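This part of the workshop introduces the protein records we will be handling. Getting from the letters to the tokens is the skill we practise here. An example says more than a description, so a record of this kind follows:
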Amino acid sequence: MKNIIIYTGPLCNYCDAAKRLLTRNNIPYKEINIATVEGSRDEMIKKANGKKTIPQIFFGDLHVGGYDEVRALEKENKLKGLIK
């Protein structure tokens, strides 16, 4: 299974929704809070090709995007196929 990383921040409803979605689908993830982990915001922006919004979600080296993209994958039944 690929390592799933979700970059989050405080008071972020989309971050909370993305974490609930992953949990609901039994997909373990590592959360990195850009407000508390030094250098993580710059790391996220670099890995996400300049995107600065949160959440930013990665399945291994694949940048999936934010909540809307992950939700679309779930609706299309493609989410679990990406984590293998």
